[in-house]
């Protein structure tokens, strides 16, 4: 694979100067054009040690208008990052639409190094590479352009380059842990790099392999290739995945064949005032203790509350938050996205609030809006909300794998009960703000929402993140069910160790020594 | 995920009869329509034990016109199949365009069962699921419609069904290895099934989960869903992946920046007559012995010969085949595809000739036509040949993982040497048939072919299947280089064990006990 990066390509000084000028002008032009579009551009700069990744990044920053460019290196990790799921730092680096981000190594650096150091095997590496491919596909489906450069050197050239570098900085000489083993190391690294590239070199985000020996050839090729990639992208519709042929069951035309999960809920369930009070008190005490235990064990908690309008989400959330220390949790009400949020992938705004290890985030409505309101109201296209199931599953899997405890509640009430509550809200002054015309309009789409909820549960109730459906007509019953589920889940989860990341997310949690 | 398949959906007898009639007529209609298209339809029938997969298949065969349908079960394996790479049997089951194939379990059965029996772990399962997703994406990109059904039963229903079945056939009772452990087994199987479905439920080939308790509901839903999926597919363009934004380097505008691998070959290399003769004899003797050793060790050999016209492929192949027993090898000259071959994916015709364990297939031109002649002559679209690199890599990886020894030769001659040979061929009567107008036309596209070859080597020279570039101006030199490379590779490969399939293709080679 790397043969063609060792053929000795060069560019003379005069040609470089001449061609650089034209290139710079054009780069600045497409950058201005980009600003008018909804395309985020991600440039990944990777390659063998000594190939000059830093030089390339400096060059790009010199050529581009830096106001539209942010550069990220991932070689060290902040405390903030260490306390969150692994991809959190990458989500923070994803540029807004119209902007560029240059990423040193990006999501490839850690798996590569960790495989090289023998911290994971090939099968584990492949699993991580498939996660990376999913991640990139998700960004690209959302309109992003991902440009991946790999800089390569022949064995001789690398050895010479590293020697040269080590004069200024001894640490760069690490490819040569023991003199004489360079040859072996070079080939082992190349084998792993080939695997990484091969598994992630798909049509929609290809790798560009570049010979790095001649700096002028290297930089000019990077600039011209980036320019071309952006130009092509500007002239083409985004490379979204095509719609599925059809993804829902065609049901027989009898009502007994159309029963849903929501139909199965016994909404008449209730709890008497007395039992409610005493149970509430007991549960709140336990939850307070469990929240502190989670804090001490550095386990974070993410709660998702979804449900029909006036389903009782707010009341249930308050019964929980009342019980716990205000320093430990954050409740995020999800309304229409801000401008900044709109300029990113729809999951971006939820990643923002992912709690640090030991803390709690409560989402009052959530990413499930994509497959509920956005689906029913047509804010998301068919293709968009259909692929969201897989995207959401991957997102939640990342949370859970990194040790987050995740619970999802759906609060259901009957149509009659909802009507009663709406009317009630209109009567009571301090509740009036809670009812809008939109609520009445949503109510008319009851069957559409029911179908959407049923499909949502089927696709996103997973072994690591099941849905709890709550019978909500009786508020006391619903609240106790929520709190009890919370307590039981927390109790069980806190006695378990975080699944050894090495067993399923290889190349994750494990960090290279000395970093 | 399976919650909604346990809600008790039913269809009464009268409704079934009525709706079945309309359904059958429509199914036959779309089947006729299908025949006029280039869409192969693959129906996968999977699900928990006792859910009635066999009944569903019978029903579909009753409803459809069986002349356009073939049914495949994979529960046992023929000797022919066992001696070839694992996916060979699935390639044989892929229907021609316009036809249907119904596959019991398909490529999902083995990984599921093997994970259930503890023969592989989750990470290994995931790796296999990603391979499956790639395989399906490849078929779908080629125009196929893949419809995947999963039939599910609640724990009680399954227990009852298995008891009922075991009256006729004791073997079906295997879900209950020890009475009392049914509950545990049920949930373990469900957890694995969920994982399998979750990882392979992508937009372009969704899973349809169907409650299997009520036979009428089950069958009618299958029929209607299949009908709908085919109808939607008939009304839509195929769900091909979009073109990549750009996948080649933009090179600086100086000739020193455009050197390719082929430019680096020293075509003046030659061998004197004397050395050639003695080396040839020695190599042929060794190769004969190695071919028998491979036969005894059940290792198969696949040789790919590509090169410019008049590059000397035929001559090199004959020097090898002359040396070995005619029973051991098969030489396949690749010309334009037959009608039957055209009705399948382009890789299909190469899978046909994959040798049994211990045998040799020599491809005189090969699947690389896709990224060479088909690219340069425009027989394949940009999107098609670009994604072929990854498809070819996956194909070759399967061969090598299953123990096949794979070698690929590119025979290069200079333009002058080619001209000399063309003219020579026109002079010599028995060589005249070897030269056509097409050869002359191809010659004019020399630069395009050179670029295509360079890119082909970059993308498909992998750790498990490297390209050998052969300097071909001097025939003796070229032939000896081919034979020597063959000998050295065979020697090394035959002393190594086949990589334990379990370490990288979990769920592959290992077969469930008692099958």
CATH class of the largest domain in chain A: Alpha Beta
CATH superfamily of the largest domain in chain A: P-loop containing nucleotide triphosphate hydrolases
Which ranges of chain A are low-confidence, i.e. pLDDT below 50, for 5 or more consecutive residues?
500-515
Terminal CA distance of chain A: 30 Å
Give the beta-strand count of chain A: 10
Corresponding CATH architecture of the largest domain in chain A: 3-Layer(aba) Sandwich
Shape of chain A: elongated
Folded structure, characterized:
The structure is a homodimer of 515-residue chains. Chain A is an alpha/beta fold. Chain A has two domains: 233 residues, 3-Layer(aba) Sandwich (Rossmann fold); 241 residues, P-loop containing nucleotide triphosphate hydrolases (Rossmann fold), CATH 3.40.50. The first copy, chain A, is 49% helix and 12% strand. Chain A contains 20 helices and ten strands. Chain A has a five-stranded parallel beta sheet with strand order 2-3-1-4-5, sandwiched between helices. In chain A, helix 10 runs parallel beside helix 19. Chain A is elongated. The C terminus of chain A is likely disordered. The interface between A and B is large, with 84 and 84 residues.
Overview features:
homodimer, 515 residues, alpha/beta, Rossmann fold, 5-stranded parallel β-sheet, 20 helices, disordered C terminus
Q: What's the layout of helices and strands?
A:
The structure is a homodimer of 515-residue chains.
Chain A: H1 13-35, E1 41-47, H2 53-63, E2 69-73, H3 79-82, H4 88-93, E3 100-104, H5 109-116, H6 122-141, E4 145-152, H7 155-168, H8 182-200, E5 207-211, H9 215-235, H10 273-296, E6 301-307, H11 313-321, E7 329-333, H12 339-342, H13 348-351, E8 360-364, H14 373-376, H15 382-401, E9 405-412, H16 415-427, H17 437-444, H18 446-460, E10 467-471, H19 475-495, H20 501-504
Parallel strand pairs in A: 1-3, 1-4, 2-3, 4-5, 6-8, 6-9, 7-8, 9-10
Helix pairs in contact in A: 1-9, 6-8, 10-19, 11-19
């Amino acid at each position: 694979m790397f043969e063609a990066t060792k053929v000795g390509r060069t560019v003379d000084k005069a040609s470089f100067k001449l061609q650089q000028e034209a290139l710079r002008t054009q780069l600045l032009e497409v950058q201005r054009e980009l600003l008018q579009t909804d395309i985020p551009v991600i440039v990944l700069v990777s390659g063998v040690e000594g190939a000059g990744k830093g030089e390339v990044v400096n060059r790009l920053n010199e050529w581009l208008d830096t106001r539209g460019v942010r550069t990220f290196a991932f070689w060290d990790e902040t405390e903030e990052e260490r306390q969150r799921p692994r991809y959190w730092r990458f989500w923070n680096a994803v540029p807004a639409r119209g902007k560029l981000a240059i990423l040193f190594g990006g999501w490839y650096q850690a798996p590569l190094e960790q495989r090289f150091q023998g911290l994971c095997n090939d099968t584990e590496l492949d699993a991580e590479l498939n996660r990376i491919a999913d991640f990139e596909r998700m960004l690209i489906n959302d309109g992003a352009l991902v440009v991946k450069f790999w800089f390569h050197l022949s064995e001789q050239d690398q050895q010479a380059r590293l020697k040269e570098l080590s004069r200024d900085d001894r640490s760069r000489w690490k490819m040569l842990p023991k003199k004489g083993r360079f040859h072996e190391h070079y080939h082992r690294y190349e084998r792993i790099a080939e695997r990484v590239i091969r598994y992630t070199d798909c049509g929609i985000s290809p790798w560009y392999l570049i010979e790095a020996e001649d700096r002028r050839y290297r930089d000019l090729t990077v600039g011209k290739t980036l320019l071309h990639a952006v130009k092509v992208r500007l002239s083409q519709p985004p490379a979204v995945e095509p719609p599925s042929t059809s993804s829902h069951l065609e049901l027989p035309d009898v009502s007994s064949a159309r029963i849903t999960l929501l139909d199965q809920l016994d909404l008449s369930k209730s709890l008497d005032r007395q039992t409610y009070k005493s149970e509430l008190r007991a549960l709140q005490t336990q939850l307070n203790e469990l929240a502190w235990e989670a804090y001490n064990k550095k386990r974070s908690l993410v709660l998702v509350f979804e449900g029909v309008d006036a389903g009782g989400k707010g009341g249930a959330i308050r019964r929980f938050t009342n019980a716990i220390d205000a320093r430990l949790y954050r409740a995020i009400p999800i309304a229409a996205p801000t401008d900044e949020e709109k300029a990113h992938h729809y999951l971006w705004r939820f990643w923002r609030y992912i709690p640090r290890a030991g803390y709690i985030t409560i989402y009052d409505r959530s990413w499930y809006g994509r497959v509920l309101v956005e689906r029913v109201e047509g804010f998301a296209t068919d293709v968009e909300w259909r692929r969201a199931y897989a995207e959401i599953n991957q997102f939640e899997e990342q949370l859970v794998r990194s040790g987050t405890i995740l619970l999802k509640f759906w609060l259901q009430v009957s149509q009659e009960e909802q009507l009663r509550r709406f009317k009630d809200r209109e009567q009571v002054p301090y509740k009036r703000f809670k009812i809008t015309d939109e609520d009445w309009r949503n109510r008319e789409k009851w069957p559409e929402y029911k179908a959407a909820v049923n499909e949502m549960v089927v696709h996103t109730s997973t072994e690591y993140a099941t849905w709890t459906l709550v019978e909500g007509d009786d508020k006391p019953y619903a609240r106790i069910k929520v709190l009890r589920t919370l307590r039981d889940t927390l109790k069980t989860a806190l006695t378990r160790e975080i699944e050894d990341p090495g067993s399923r997310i290889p190349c994750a949690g494990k960090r290279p020594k000395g970093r």
